[in-house]
């Protein structure tokens, strides 16, 4: 018995191209192992080609029904083994369906490759994994890590989701899943942007989607640029130099305060070593923009570095630093959602508050356009509105 109908999977329309022209057959190896079982072989034929390979199933040859290509009599073990064979047939059917709908030719060799590579033209996670590795060479390290994080979340939510199951309802459920995980709106939007990128790659490779990709709403990926006031930075500085702070808190806070005084991103801070701090300035290549940058070290920065000899020697994962910063904020009484990137915003706003030149701030932050830097000028100008309440004490 063939596992698929030639009428279903060969073309049903008037065309000269046979998109899916393969037949599959289960059989047993001729030899019997010492435990009395024989391995099951899957043979795929078509287009004058044949692929024959052993699958991870062994059966009692006396219970093998050659005509039905299944086991009998029915027992718990045989039922389980038959289900495995049924699952293999389902996967092959899914591969054929995907190729047929995408108007793609499929031969035995391609079907075998698709089957053993996780069915990337069928399974979205398998495609995401394959496409991400193909795109890796053109990605910045931080971008690659971000896409890997998104892929990990999708796998945790539903690693077996197929392209045929992806629709706007599925994405709504996925967003709700991210909300339950405690992800911020901007994080969720960044996740959706990453997914949409690889869906576009899938479409360009001929994979058909069950929805219009333009209907997939991303949302804003721009954060609210939370920054700390001068007083809040002072609080953190006092805690950092306090004799009562433990080592892990001091290290995480040391990196954060270093960024508050230099504006460096966490990726750039993580790339620096202690020997980079020997001069009165540091030079580095921005991990995000790949541009050369030079930052002079003022006396406050030097004091922060010298206070802990493990700073830029012992490193923490980004997630660990952010979790520690949240705990520190509670300890010192700062009621803001602090992540490491808050330090960069804090540097920019303090620089403007102190009368720093916008053009020079652009160079320090490594912005490609002045418009990016002017956002911080607007933020500081908005703070002026809060000063109006100082007049309330006149009468």
Mean pLDDT: 83
Number of helices: 15
Fraction in helix? 40-55%
Main sheet specs: 3 strands, antiparallel
Structure commentary:
49% of the residues lie in helices and 10% in strands. By secondary structure, it is mostly helical. A hairpin with a 6-residue loop joins strand 6 (281-285) and strand 7 (292-296). Helix 8 (230-240) packs antiparallel against helix 9 (247-262), helix 9 (247-262) packs across helix 12 (318-332) and helix 14 packs across helix 15 (370-383). The N and C termini lie far apart (96 Å).
Fold topology:
Layout: H1 6-9, E1 23-28, E2 38-46, E3 49-59, E4 64-65, E5 70-71, H2 76-101, H3 108-116, H4 124-135, H5 141-158, H6 168-180, H7 185-204, H8 230-240, H9 247-262, H10 266-271, E6 281-285, E7 292-296, H11 299-307, H12 318-332, H13 341-353, H14 358-365, H15 370-383
Antiparallel strand pairs: 1-2, 2-3, 4-5, 6-7
Helix pairs in contact: 4-5, 4-7, 8-9, 9-11, 9-12, 9-13, 13-15, 14-15
């Amino acid at each position: 018995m063939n596992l698929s109908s030639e009428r279903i999977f060969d073309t049903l329309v008037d065309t000269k191209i046979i998109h899916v022209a393969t037949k599959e057959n289960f059989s047993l190896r001729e030899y019997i192992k010492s435990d009395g079982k024989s391995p099951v072989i899957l043979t795929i034929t078509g287009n004058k080609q044949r692929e024959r390979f052993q699958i991870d199933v062994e059966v009692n040859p006396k219970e093998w029904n050659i005509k039905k290509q299944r086991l009998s009599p029915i027992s718990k073990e045989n039922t389980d083994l038959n289900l495995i064979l049924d699952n293999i047939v389902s996967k092959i059917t899914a591969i054929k369906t995907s190729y047929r709908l995408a108007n793609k030719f499929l031969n035995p060799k391609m079907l075998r490759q698709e089957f053993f590579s996780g069915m990337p033209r069928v399974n979205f996670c398998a495609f995401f994994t394959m496409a991400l590795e193909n795109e890796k060479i053109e990605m910045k390290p931080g971008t690659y890590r971000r896409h890997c994080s998104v892929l990990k979340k999708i796998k945790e939510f539903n690693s077996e989701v197929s392209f045929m199951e992806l629709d706007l309802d599925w994405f709504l459920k996925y967003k709700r899943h991210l909300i339950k995980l405690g992800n911020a709106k901007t994080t969720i939007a960044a996740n959706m942007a990453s997914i949409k990128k690889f869906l576009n790659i899938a479409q360009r490779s001929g994979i058909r989607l069950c929805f219009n990709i333009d209907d997939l709403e991303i949302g804003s990926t721009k954060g609210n640029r939370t920054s700390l006031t001068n007083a809040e930075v002072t609080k953190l500085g006092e805690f950092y130099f306090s004799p009562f702070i433990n080592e892990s808190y001091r290290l995480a806070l040391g990196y954060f305060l270093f960024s508050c005084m230099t504006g460096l991103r966490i990726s750039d801070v993580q790339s620096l070593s202690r020997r980079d701090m020997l001069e009165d300035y540091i030079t580095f290549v921005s991990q995000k923009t790949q541009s050369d940058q030079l930052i002079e070290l003022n006396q406050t920065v030097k004091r922060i570095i010298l206070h802990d000899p493990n700073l830029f020697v012992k490193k923490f994962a980004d997630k660990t630093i952010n979790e520690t910063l949240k705990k520190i904020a509670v300890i010192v009484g700062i009621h803001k959602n602090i992540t490491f990137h808050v330090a960069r915003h804090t540097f920019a706003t303090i620089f403007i508050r102190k009368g720093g030149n916008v053009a020079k701030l652009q160079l320090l932050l490594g912005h490609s356009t002045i418009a990016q830097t002017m956002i911080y000028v607007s933020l500081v100008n908005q703070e002026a509105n809060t000063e109006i309440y100082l007049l309330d004490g006149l009468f």
